[in-house]
Amino acid sequence: MASQKERIYMAVIGDEDSVTGLLLAGIGHTDTKQQTNFLVVDAKTPLAKIEEAFETFTTRKDIAIVLVNQHVAEMIRPMIDSYEQAFPTVLEIPSKDHPYDPAKDSVLKRISKLFGDG
Description:
Keywords: Hydrogen ion transport, Ion transport, Membrane, Transport, Vacuole. Helix content is 36%, strand content 18%. By secondary structure, the chain is α/β, with parallel strands linked by helices. The longest helix has 13 residues, at 47-59.
């Protein structure tokens, strides 16, 4: 298991506006193998590519947080819901065109079950 000190990056899987905003905020990184820590998802992005990015980001030892637009998370919901590791933490975020729905958020669902509300 990687130490928490090695986890210094955030990753993002989302629509162009969300990814661009986060890149402008400074989260972008490209390593020596030309691997990035982001994936822009649009209507033409194959589901397999989204799944591959999620798998890659959640197994990298240098990533602490994976941000996923909630509407993209819905496309890979079984992967999101079955992910149980503490690090990297997977968080669902809203996008400009798709409002956030707390009822769909995997983290909030787990908290509800923990407290017996779900």
